[in-house]
Amino acid sequence: MTAFAMILVPLALLGVVAYDFWFRFGARFNSDSFLEPLTGLVFLTYDDGPASPFAAWGDSIQDAETARESILAVDPCWNFAASTTANLARVLAEYDQRALFFVRGDTLDADQSTHDVLRKLHDSGSVLGNHSFSHTRFLQLPAECCVDEVQKTDCLLRKITGQAHSLFRPPWGQWHFGRTLRMWRRASLSQYSLPLNWTHATRDWEKSAVDLSRDNLNDAVSEFLQSARATRSGIVLLQHDVWIYSVLFTRILLECLCQEPRLRIGDPSLLVQHARQTSQAARQWVGIPYYLRERLRLIKSRLASALPLSRRSGP
Q1: What is the chain's percent helix, strand, coil content, to nearest 5?
Q2: Strands 100-103 and 200-201
Q3: What pTM was estimated for this model as a whole?
Q4: pLDDT tens per residue, range 98-117
Q5: Rounded CA separation 25/35 (Å)
Q6: Distances from the Cα of 52 to the Cαs of 58, 93, 220, in angstroms?
Q7: 215 vs 242: CA distance, rounded Å
């Protein structure tokens, strides 16, 4: 019985580590370790766009009209004939800030009018990322189909900007390392970094017209800033540029950060550069040394956070 346990326990631990590495960790960038050198920076990221002009809020432009009073109270310059992505681009330009947009390929393929908005964002210094083609849950697809989804969107992005792109965010953040290895084996996708997830989210997909009031938005931004100040790493904020809520939240956030001494918006080019450098380490030995190092750093960070403040602060 003892000999059996001596064999079974190590095998069980090995199985847990293998599952953690391949699926749960999935070689996605971890906030406690990957973003640690970028402490104090907030990176704005937006998924699922670019939005079409006829889908500004909910299902149609008419839905935006019903919330006109609330929207104009926060953003008097809102253009109800333009898409939410176009309005977001205007807000970012007003505050001289840039963001990262993870783009769906099926939207680009179906609506050519979205290409001009993306070109303007790209030319202004924002970064375009790959968010697959159909936004299907990748764990429901064969691995090769997942890589094909990345490939199709990559081709569309190259046609729009004339440049290669390197950041990728899988739909719903679902991914595992085997798909990264398959992606890197394709010459046209070998420049991609490890998938980028997020540290904070506004949960804009749960919001309704009631949440567009100035008071509710102020409360939401204050709650985010309180959490951000306590974070010991860089912050990747997830929003979706297909929702009016995201545009208005971003506007108030940028207003507040003008008076915030401890936080500032990070230029997305810093995130791209850091992701490329980190991914080089993950390519060696099938990512295992990278995984072990990151997990040890995570454990160390969690232990440090668990220590009493008096012990961490020193004499």
Answers
A1: 60, 10, 30
A2: unpaired
A3: 0.86
A4: 999 999 999 898 888 899 99
A5: 15
A6: 12, 20, 26
A7: 22
